[in-house]
Amino acid sequence: MSGTIPPEVGAILRRIPSVDEVLAGEAIQRLLARQPRWAVLEAVREVLAGCRERALAGEPRPESAQALLDPQVIQASIERATSRKAGPSLRPVINASGVVLHTNLGRAPLASSALAALVAAARGYSNLEFDLAAGIRGSRQAHVERQLCALTGAEAALVVNNNAAAVFLAVNTLASGREVIISRGELVEIGDSFRIPDVMTSAGGRLREVGTTNRTHLADYERAIGPETGLILKVHRSNFQLLGFTAEVDAARLAALAKPRNLPIMEDLGSGALVDLSAYGLRREPLAADAIRAGVDVVTFSGDKLLGGPQAGILVGRRELLARLRRNPLARTVRIDKLCLAALEATLRLAREPDRARQEIPVLRMLSLSAAAVGARAEALAAGLRAAAPGVRCVVEEGTSEVGGGALPLQALPTRVLSLAPGREGAGALEARLRTGEPPVLVRVQDQRVLLDLRTVAPEDDATLLAAVAAVLTAARTGDGA
C-alpha cells in the first residue's frame, strides 16, 4: 500500500493483538488442548491478517472497529478457521442437484456391501496377490475376473484404475506405432478436456480417421485397412448423440470385416452398463455382453458410472489379447488398488442378481425411482421446513433429473423438486449458503429459484438435509452469518 496510513487506521492496527498474545490467551489454550497446534497457529495468523486487511481497507469506523477488535469475535473466527483446517478437505456432501452421476461429486455412491468390503480390505492384510489354496503368489485380477466373465460372456478380464487408462493400455499394447482406424463421428471428448484422439496418440497409436462426422460406412473402414493398420476402434458416443442424417457401422459388421484380416477390433463403451436399463424405463445402453457376442476382441468401460461401483477401467475380451495387455509394463503403472478392487468385486456380485442390484446399488436405485416416490419425500421435506422455519416459502413442483457422468445425455428423468423462494438475498446467495453450510448441500438454481431434487439424496439423509436447510433459512432471515 502506497502513501501514509491515516492516524485512525494506525490506531486500529496497533490495537490488533500479536500472534503470541493470542496464543497465550486462556481460550486459545483450551482450543490447543483439543485441536492440532499447526491448525490453531495457521488459523490465528489468518484471522489476524484478515483484521489488518480490513483495517487498511478503510473499515475502522468507530462501530466497525469495535467489532473488528472484539476478543469474542476474534476467538469465534479462530475456532471456525481451526475446525476448517484441522478437518478433512475431502468431505461428504448432500447431492440435491438431481444429477445422479455427478462427476464433480465423485460419481457413483457405493452399495453397503461394497463399503463393507472396502473397509475390510483396508483394516488389515488380505490375500490381494496370494493364492491361499496353493500357498503361492497370486493375481489381484483373480478377485474380479470370474465375475466379469460371467456377466459379459468374455474369455478373460483385466481391471485398471480408470477407463482412460484402459483405452491407453489397449492401444499401446495392440497398436503402438501403427494405425488405429476410427470413425470421425466417434472422436469424443470424455471430460475435463481429455479426448479420445489424444489418449490414442499418447499411447503410440497413429490416428486414421474414416467417414464424416455424421455418416460412416463399412466401405470407409475397408478402404482404410492397409499394412500399417494395427487396430479398429469403435467408441460409444455415451455423452452426446448425433441425430438426423446419420449412419454408423455396428460392431458385428466391423468384427466380420476385421477377423479375416487378422485385425483386432476394440470397442470403448464408456458408461459401463451391465444391466439392461430399459427395464427402468430408460433408453437401452449397449452392454459389454452385446459387444462380446458381436465378436469384439476387447471391450472397455468404466466402473463408477452405470455399473455403480468404484472408479475403475474394465477390459474384457479374448484371452490371448488380454494376456498381452497384462504383460505390458504399463499395466503395473495403471493397476487398480486393493480398496477399489474390493468394492468392485462386491458390486459385481450384486450385478449378477438384477433385482437385488436394483435395490442395493444406489445408482440403479436412484435411476429407477418414480417421480411420485421422489415427490412424496419432497412433500415431507417441505412440511418439515415449514414447521422448523415458519414463514419459509416452498412448493413442490414438476421437474427433471439427469443421469450425468457422460451417460444418456438426452434422457430426462421425470421428477418432483422442492422449490425454495430465496427472499431478498437472491437465489445465488441462498445457493452459496447451502453449499458452504454444514453439511454442504448442493442444489440447482433455475429462474431465480433454488431447487432440491431428492432423487439423488439417500433416504437416510433426509433428516440431515432438513436440519441443514432449515438452519440456513433461519440464519438468512435473522441475518446471522451475513
Secondary structure elements and their pairing?
Elements: H1 7-15, H2 19-23, H3 26-34, H4 37-56, H5 62-69, H6 71-86, E1 94-95, E2 99-101, H7 112-123, E3 130-131, E4 136-137, H8 142-152, E5 156-160, H9 163-175, E6 179-183, E7 189-191, E8 194-195, H10 196-202, E9 206-210, H11 218-224, E10 229-235, H12 251-258, E11 265-270, H13 288-293, E12 298-302, E13 313-317, H14 319-327, H15 330-333, H16 338-351, H17 354-360, H18 362-368, H19 371-388, E14 394-404, E15 412-420, H20 427-435, E16 441-442, E17 444-446, E18 449-452, H21 462-478
Parallel strand pairs: 1-16, 2-14, 6-9, 6-10, 10-11, 11-12
Antiparallel strand pairs: 3-4, 5-13, 7-8, 12-13, 14-15, 15-18, 17-18
Helix pairs in contact: 4-6, 7-16, 8-16, 9-10, 17-18, 19-21
Describe the structure.
This protein has 482 residues and is an alpha/beta fold. It has 3 domains: 7-86, no CATH class; 94-103 and 366-478, Aspartate Aminotransferase, domain 1; 112-360, Aspartate Aminotransferase, domain 2 (3-Layer(aba) Sandwich). The protein is 45% helix and 17% strand. It contains 21 helices and 18 strands. It has helices spanning 7-15, 19-23, 26-34, 37-56, 62-69, 71-86, 112-123, 142-152, 163-175, 196-202, 218-224, 251-258, 288-293, 319-327, 330-333, 338-351, 354-360, 362-368, 371-388, 427-435, 462-478, and strands at residues 94-95, 99-101, 130-131, 136-137, 156-160, 179-183, 189-191, 194-195, 206-210, 229-235, 265-270, 298-302, 313-317, 394-404, 412-420, 441-442, 444-446, 449-452. The strands form 5 sheets. A 7-stranded mixed beta sheet has the order 5-13-12-11-10-6-9, with helices on both faces. A 5-stranded mixed beta sheet has the order 2-14-15-18-17. Strand 17 and strand 18 (449-452) form a beta hairpin. It is globular, with a radius of gyration of 28 Å. The mean pLDDT is 91.
